[in-house]
Amino acid sequence: MNAAIWWIRRDLRLYDNQALDAALRTGNSIVPVFVLDPTLLDSPYVGPKRLSFLFTGLRLLDQDLRERGSRLIVRRGEPIRELTRVCEESQAGTIFAEPDFSTYACRRDARAGRLLPVKWVGSPALRSPGSVLKADGQPYVVYTPFSRTWQEAPPPKRSALLPSPKRLTTPVGLASEPIPDNPALDPQIPFKPGEKPARKSLQAFVEGENAPVYQYGRRRDRLDLSGTSRLSPYLRFGMLSIREAVTSAYEAINSARDREERRGAQTWLNELIWRDFYLHNLYHFPRVRRENFRYPHIRWQNDGEQFTDWCSGQTGYPVIDASMRQLAATGWMHNRARMIVASFLTKDLLIDWRWGEQWFMRHLVDGDPAANNGGWQWSAGTGTDAAPYFRIFNPISQSEIHDPQGEHIRCWIPELKKVPDEYLHAPWKMPETIQTQAGCRIGRDYPLPIVDHSWARERALDTYSQAKDKQT
User: Fold this and answer.
1) pTM for the full model?
2) How far, rounded to the nearest angstrom, does the alpha carbon of residue 353 sit from its chain's CA centroid?
3) Where residue 425 sits, what CATH number does that domain have?
4) Residue 31: beta bridge partners?
5) What per-residue confidence (pLDDT) applies to 472?
6) Does residue 311 share a domain with residue 334?
7) Order of strands, sheet of 29-36, starting from the edge strand that comes earlier in the sequence
8) Which of 99, 167, 445, 463 has its CA 20 to 30 A from that of 237?
9) CA separation for the pair 220, 226 (Å, rounded)
10) Beta-carbon neighbour count of residue 462 at 10 Å?
11) Boundary residue ending a domain (284, 317, 336)
12) Which residues are catalytic?
């Protein structure tokens, strides 16, 4: 046997790649393989922005490989069939791959493990699913005790991170499909694909005395500020190692100069732990992709016209509409905004969270099955460790708190640019004279609210209360 296959899935990087390192340790030549899987590419949960980000990332990975004497081998088709062919063509004896934990990935990988010489190495989570359990061996369904157990294990050390290989050898003569150039990378996507931009973004977030990570605790919920790490697309595709991200979080905590800075860095680490928590949930409870974890008897209204208004940013609530338009234009939305728009869809409109989950997956560059599902079920009050069903975000007060000067709103809703601050979060309250002065007639230039929040809140409380009674 004269080759080892590195089966690339969501680990598009050379630095700290455990599967690649394991393949290199065989001492054989390496065959980096990415399979364009029609089941994933044609899924209704896939959209052009995320695909273009992936394809551009693959081209950049190919460049990095070629600089080291290797190249990316791309095949299109059913993964096991294509990998069998590559094994035969390269005489490879082993396939090394990082496991994945979506419902489809688990089925695919279980079959691959039966039919191919696969060795699973590493994980997209820092602590792989199955490694953080209660004392009785059962999985956690509440975040806080999960987090405590997660943090009891030793933190990763920078010395354990694996360097990028300097030289790679790949057998010649292996056929490769071209990496698709359609869809083209949308210039409005606010992230540069690839491992180098990913690591540069991490460094900018955590390094230096005044690093943004230290203000993360007090700035992360502001829609008008760049207070988040914005690393989620890189973690989604493994352009950034989760071990490097968590290592950086611990280093920032230990380097903090005061309690406030330490709180900021710890809050970011908590968010990385939430990412692990949702991966574990999906692995242990795959049914959450199809159904409510709790409250199965909610009577959704599922009004198609209201869903269209929500999707297109025409609900009449500025914070909702600005955030939905940001998503459509850029493929990204602030996490606080994700919670606000999800609460509005599921509670104010009583539209099934699965409708919103799919819409997000079709548009988010960082769309991740575990995190997206976990976030939607949290907002809907139906998931593991979900927000209580009676927690219903008020879109007006949320807007006033997290976008106080209306910069987020004015950026994405040009119709409201001249609306005075005092009316910006609830423009339907403007007197007609001020509407005229602002050049924005409510009901003509910008819609009236499609639902009254106070009434909708009472309806949601009643609906969820009935569902709770049926469950008990």
Assistant:
1) 0.96
2) 16
3) 1.10.579.10
4) 5
5) 67
6) yes
7) 73-76, 29-36, 3-8, 92-97, 118-120
8) 167
9) 8
10) 10
11) 284
12) 271, 274, 300, 335, 353, 376
By the 8 A CB rule, do 26 and 114 touch? no
State how far the Cα of 141 lies from the Cα of 384, in Å rounded to an integer.
5
Q: What are phi and psi of 297, to 5 degrees?
A: -105, 25
CA distance 14 to 10: 12
Angle, to 10 degrees, between the axis of helix 143-152 and the axis of helix 259-284? 110
For residues 245 and 369, membership in a common domain is answered with no
| CA angle at 145 for the pair 144 and 151, rounded to the nearest 5° | 90
Q: For the residues of 436-453, what is the DSSP string, one character each?
A: HHHT--BTTTBPPPSS-H
The closest of 200, 207, 217, 196 to 251, measured between CA atoms, is 207
Token representation of residue 337: 């905004």
State the total domains in the chain: 3
pLDDT of residue 471: 79
| Domain end residue (candidates: 284, 319, 347) | 284
Residue 28: what pLDDT? 86
Residues 134 and 269 grouped into a single domain: yes
Contacts 24+ apart (CB under 8 A), 267-273: 267/216, 267/217, 267/220, 268/213, 268/216, 268/220, 268/229, 270/147, 272/126, 272/242, 272/245, 272/246, 273/143, 273/146, 273/147, 273/150, 273/151
Residue 202, CA distances (Å) to 58, 213, 245, 269, 333 in order? 20, 10, 7, 13, 19
Q: How many other C-beta atoms can be found within 10 angstroms of the C-beta atom of residue 188?
A: 12
Q: For each successive 10 residues of the chain (472 residues), what is the average pLDDT?
A: 91 98 94 98 97 98 98 98 97 96 96 98 97 97 97 96 97 96 95 98 95 97 96 98 98 96 98 98 96 94 98 98 98 98 98 98 98 97 86 97 98 98 98 97 98 98 93 73
What whole-number distance in Å separates Cα of residue 347 and Cα of residue 252?
Answer: 38
**pLDDT for position 1:** 54
Are 6 and 32 in contact, with CB atoms under 8 Å apart? yes
